Amino acid sequence: MASKVRLYVDHPLGEGQTVPLGRDQANYLFAVMRLPVGTVLSLINGRDGEWDAEVVEANKRAGVLRCLAQTRPLQLPPDVWLLFAPIKKERTAFIVEKATELGAAKIIPVQTDFTQSANRARQDKLQAHAVEATEQCGGTFVPEVEPLRTLANMLADWPSDRHLLFCDETLLEDPHEMADLPDGPWAIVIGPEGGFSNTEREALRNHRQSHPISLGPRILRADTAAVAALTLWQREKGDWA
Amino acid sequence: MASKVRLYVDHPLGEGQTVPLGRDQANYLFAVMRLPVGTVLSLINGRDGEWDAEVVEANKRAGVLRCLAQTRPLQLPPDVWLLFAPIKKERTAFIVEKATELGAAKIIPVQTDFTQSANRARQDKLQAHAVEATEQCGGTFVPEVEPLRTLANMLADWPSDRHLLFCDETLLEDPHEMADLPDGPWAIVIGPEGGFSNTEREALRNHRQSHPISLGPRILRADTAAVAALTLWQREKGDWA
């Protein structure tokens, strides 16, 4: 019993809507997976929810699907951003995958004082990881991966209504209960391997909208910290409640 | 400014104790990293805490270290086991790494009805991942990775004092607050990709010591679920409190 193929397309979805496929997707569906005309699969585009669609034309270089019916409405994640310092390629991809699964609304790579410049991941590659993770995890929303910015620039231009959950690796105990944190838009900030510089830590601690939390007594890798912080936030302030 | 090398050895550590190195470690330290005699590094063995030790003999095939002073005592994690169904090789290694970082006391791979048999990871390889993660995360305790057992066998022979945190992927809302869970030894159970079979789910739900929890409205991969569940448990019942 094969599970239904779930595919992201950058095309409007709606009843009776036809959806042309590009060469890569056509090759995957009709040459690799050998799906015949009439096969029903799931489509998402990040905006119109999830749709059943049937294959109406199938060849290795192109193909056409037609939407049948919506199977799930668009489900937006809570308004939480993840800011993280890019680490090694594989682990950066992992952070994007996990942030997508865990329901981040936006993913923002930030350059910190201790970010290795070799770790500048390509935005289009990271966005593709977010799309793939959405296909896999049954989601209908794809978080946007923004271009790399410096942490200093981000903080200088910080939106006045957005709270900052600052995962401070030097804190062994938590200064407050997660449940006591204010409502509203949030962003979670995870440091690079090697932590934040003293200047950055002071800036984050002293930021007007910043709420520092501890992630326990052990040293966590940046990718672990991202999953842990998103989990705690979703459970207390997000849509796991 | 290089950070100090941190090395696991299977040898007693204590003041003045000499520690012979095997060929692989000697090669790494003296041929690859080119550490000279007199270099001070950190040793752990999972039992005696963390020790500063200096290099007293260095050649590519062997070497000797001598312990100087203890830098950290042994810090045991809380008594929580992680039971998980092996998934693809890379992600299984990842689960072992994350469970070590997040302070699991024991890691137990379990065969479930939907576990792919191709995913039987070698115990010695998984144990090596736990050692490496301990070296990296600054820990002094290495969780034991047990041999693969079937979930049915484990449940039939379940220790009468150990609670079971059952991460039920079919639950969208949580039946209880984490804070209300009882004290005592715990185990966290994560399902395979594809979830538990109906028989397993019933057995887990009806188990006398079982406490089901939800991990939110999105489908999480098994590796994400492991990190999320350990985080929630550590924060409420473990040593993050």
From TrEMBL, chains A, B:
What SUPFAM superfamilies does the database record attribute to this sequence?
alpha/beta knot, PUA domain-like
Positions of the Ribosomal RNA small subunit methyltransferase E methyltransferase domain: 77-234
State the Pfam families in the record: Methyltrans_RNA, PUA_4
Gene3D superfamilies of this UniProt entry? Answer: 3.40.1280.10, Hypothetical PUA domain-like, domain 1 (2.40.240.20)
Q: Name one GO cellular component term.
A: cytoplasm
Q: Where is the signal peptide?
A: none
Ribosomal RNA small subunit methyltransferase E PUA-like domain sequence ranges? 22-62
Q: Does the keyword Membrane apply?
A: no
> What are the UniProt keywords, alphabetically?
Cytoplasm, Methyltransferase, rRNA processing, S-adenosyl-L-methionine, Transferase
User: Which EC numbers characterise this protein's activity in its record?
Assistant: 2.1.1.193
- Which InterPro entries does the entry link to? Alpha/beta_knot_MTases, PUA-like_sf, RsmE, RsmE_MTase_dom, RsmE_PUA-like, tRNA_m1G_MTases_N
This chain's function reads: Specifically methylates the N3 position of the uracil ring of uridine 1498 (m3U1498) in 16S rRNA. Acts on the fully assembled 30S ribosomal subunit.
Family named by the database record: Belongs to the RNA methyltransferase RsmE family.
Protein name in the entry: Ribosomal RNA small subunit methyltransferase E
